[in-house]
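2024-03-11 09:14:02 DEBUG pipeline.ingest accepted 1 chain
2024-03-11 09:14:02 DEBUG pipeline.ingest length=383
2024-03-11 09:14:03 DEBUG pipeline.predict start
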Amino acid sequence: MAITKTTNGKWKVDISDGCNPLTGEQVRHRKTGFKTRKEAELYESNYRINNFHKLNYKDKISISYLYSLVKEEDISRGNKRATVDTQESYFNQYVSKFFENADMRKISINEIKSFRDWLCIQPSVKGGTLTVTTVNQQMIFVHKLFDIAVANKLRQDNPCDSLRKLPNKHKEMSYYTPEEFKLFDSLFTKDEYPFQLFYRVLMYTGMRKGEALALTWENINLSENYIDVKFSAYFRDNKVHIGTVKTTQSNRRIYIHNGFAEELKKWKQKQAELLRCFTDEFENLQIYQTSPEVLTGPNITNFKASFKKRMPDNLKMIRNHDFRHSHSAYLISQGLRNGEGKDYIFFTLMKRLGHSSINTTINTYSHLFPTQQKEVASAFDNF
């Protein structure tokens, strides 16, 4: 602290106020214009009592240390490998860079908001900037870091608690009608059958991409026509990883129609002939394999990029996840035609899609009931 007289005869207070929590650089508080030294000393005394940086810990807590505690927690809880890998990606690409010099004991809601603002302008590998969904997911990870800090008594509060997630702009759901899917399906060549089969699995079962890529013959009962969904595949560090499905409810049994079951029986026999010289454990083969190499997420992405170029103008390319929506939209339309009630349709879809809550199913697909609002309004005819 220093109180000095300026050239104009006034007095100035210059106080060291700790360090910037993000950069680690020293912060100073300065105020001038006091008529007497006594006024300056009184201001300095009041500032020290009321405003001076209250946290005065000896040891700085780094973001790397907090992350190490999170990893220990993940191991002890047996969290999914996919979750752990995603967190590592967030940490290495964004969190560690922004909070590199920060003392995590002293981070406030203001620095958390600055981090989120910074995330919103970061470039995405898919072009443009990070999506709102990605930003919100990273903020969940940061919230977890501070939860760990509180649990280990490294700080008293979580600065993320009062921060709400960013609202997502409503996007119209994209999906194929049966006619559009048949047109899409007709564009594959004979050599592209593994990719064609992959998209048929998505369309006919409503499975997620990772679930479909983890599918082996061991999980398919072709006598009873069902698939047991137990695993999910993802690609990271140039390797395929097989983990558990997204939630407990995602572990499910999906029945398939007779025509698709017959197709799978014929393909299973043909695949065994193709790969007989490589293995005799056919039940462990990924169902899309035509070589010792399995089909991966990057394979699908690269294929779509070239496939899209030969699609007709009247057919748009939809996301892999939108085939799940296409599956659901078709089942809803069939249920309505058969006179099934909405509650029954939603409950059946929830089980088939592996949603953890029926609210997820309702929120995602309720707009596909076009007459619902008319039915509500007509209830007042008998008022």
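2024-03-11 09:14:41 DEBUG pipeline.report The radius of gyration is 29 Å.
2024-03-11 09:14:41 DEBUG pipeline.predict end
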